[in-house]
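The data are set out underneath:

___
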Amino acid sequence: MPVVLIIAGDIGGTNSRLAMYKLDKSKPIAEKTICDDHEDVFTRYYKNEGFQQFQDVVAQFLLDVVKETSTNVDSIASACFAVAGPVIQNSVVMTNRGWAFNGHELSQRFNIAKVRLINDFAANGYGLLTLDESEYQVLQEGDEDSNCPVGLIGAGTGLGECFLTSKDGVYDAFPCEGGHVEFAPRSELEVEMLQFLYKKYGRVSVERIVSGKGIVNVYEFLTNRFPDEVVKVHHNKIMAAPEPAKAISSSAHDYKLAFKAMEMMMTAYGAETGNIGLKLLPQGSIYICGGIAPHNIEFMSGDDTVFMKAFRDKGRVANVLHNVPIRLVRSEDLGLRGAHVVSARLVEGVKLVASDLKRTGSSSSSTASLQQLCASQCCGMNSSLLLTVAITSLTAAFAGAAFFKLLSK
């Protein structure tokens, strides 16, 4: 039978979302339309706290599929699970849950022909391949080249980063831990904030500022730095909120210190997004995902916003970033979509249609020098070279840390 079953899963620290799809092996996969082309057999969320191990989640999912759809799940062609943790040799110990499992064990236990585990943010990268124009907002038009790398950054509970490269029109996503590089202050107030957070944490990563927890850190610094500006009514509401970061964001237009906290966080967000631009030369676009950006678009959309100013504030090499397309993703299910893409690729005998991230009607007005720069430095990059660039950047970050240590004495 040409029709087979595949599974995709997005497995976080708190929730697991699993989906089963029907795939016709006789039809080539067009990842741009994969969500519409494959029949959604069954999808369900599970609270992880109700299960001792991940294998129990999969077992419950398959039982629910049988019970509610009468689908025969004795033989499944493939499964891909996006997991919150580093994947090594198709195995993972989840960072915030402690579950340990590997693809081979899952394959054997549930009679799934092929099982692949991927990092959750790499899954977000693959999820980009399914987006249409209605699912993102353009922050900078730029001049896109589909042969060049694509960068992805997303702030939510933490700060994730990854990149994609293309070979013969087929993109692959590569995870990294870019959110954990050292935070580099860009103003006197940011230097004071770094010193404040250094006393609290020791080493200070970008994620300590650019994330939900980071918003709270920035606000805490500001309340200590400007105690006379603390408004008790707003402050008490923030401190009592189950999610203080959301409370700070929602108070930003009524409470000066909350507004300043959002501005400082978004400035750091823009600067780190610009750093990705310098490291990858991602003329294929930079995408921004995660839960924070869509709810705080006023700090990001427009040339005069703190985000875009910080993105472009790169001194002698600022011109490199002026034509990089930037897109803010509104969709919140990139991880599951990405796992769907990878699971479909695992099915033996399926042909893949070349991915197309390029917008229709994009501008072709880039200068010759920019085209030459992209052709010589980014279009020819393979993943190994990009990793070398990343390592070089980390070395520079260590130098920055040493500078701060001298500064704080």
